[in-house]
Write a structure and sequence with these properties.
This protein is of the alpha/beta class and 362 residues long. It is built from 18 helices and 8 strands. Helix 10 packs across helix 14. It starts with a strand and ends with a strand.
Amino acid sequence: MNPVLLTETSALAAYLDRFSDEPQVALDVEFVRQTTYYPHLCLIQMAFANQDPVLIDPFSCDVTVLGPLLTNPKVLKIVHDGKQDVEALRYALSVVPAPLFDVQLAAAFCGMGSQIRYEKLVRTLCDSSFSQIKTPLDWKRRPLPTGHLHYAAEDVHYLNAIYQGLTERLNQTGRRAWFDEDMAALERSFQTPLCEHDMGGKFKVGHLPYPHVPTARALVVVRDRIARHKNMARRRLLSDEGLLAAASRGAEAAMHLFPEHNEFWQDFDALCALFKKAPPSKAQDEEAVRFFLLSAALKDVAQKNNLPESLLANREALRVFGKAPSPLDQGWRAEVAGNLLQSIQRGNVSVRLSGEVLVYET
């Protein structure tokens, strides 16, 4: 492997022109965001099939010339756990790369577990080792040390081979259509940022007393608004511990935070009301039993199909199943698990335990 560092826009444009007819390209980026809300793009790595990687320096190149390649529908972009990479490119270049092939997602469909690390994929599918660096690297440093460049190049050097190996496995298992379905959904999610209400709802409140939970969730939304405005990391603006402490003192006390940004607090009372819901009661026992039964069946189906349970459905999808639209209602998930769960919920199929095995009977 002999990676090439591109530091001039003309050299980058010539490189892109040279490989303009290639059907696929491996893609990775390095960025920092320890102190900022938005990622600070520091390096872009690319590798066309059977070619050495190139490392593109956005500090000295006009990387917007990459836009046509990244959005070309005829060029497949191969990534590993690409959500944050896509976010960094979207902010820096104002484009969302597509179409994508995320090897981490593909590996899950191939029975290799959820969130498999790149290093393990290299060992398993390429029979090669990988230079693991345990200490954080300063990607803003210039000039970038040789060790940084070699490590960055390895991040894309094996991706084309990994793509080939996983494509063969997906076809052999008959799960390529399943993967394509989920990959398309993932690409759509990249086009739409997380709703701020969802952000507040997903925040972990720990042991905060229930009356203060709506205040904490509303405060998460306001913290995000101000952090985005100041381009400051959320937890640098206000730590999670500080947020929970402020929420525990009540809504009025929380609203005294950041008085210089009153414009972001205008709907705070409405946000608190939005996140209010009735506390748990004994009437929910039946719902708890339903959820436990469906969870057991889902885990059983996942094991029998050698799939990560999380790939089939998360807790929220299972909680709303049969009451509201759920991923389990459609596509390959309905075929593999949803139809069975629906039959169990309707009483058409019973479940019993035989030893350590679940048995389903009509």
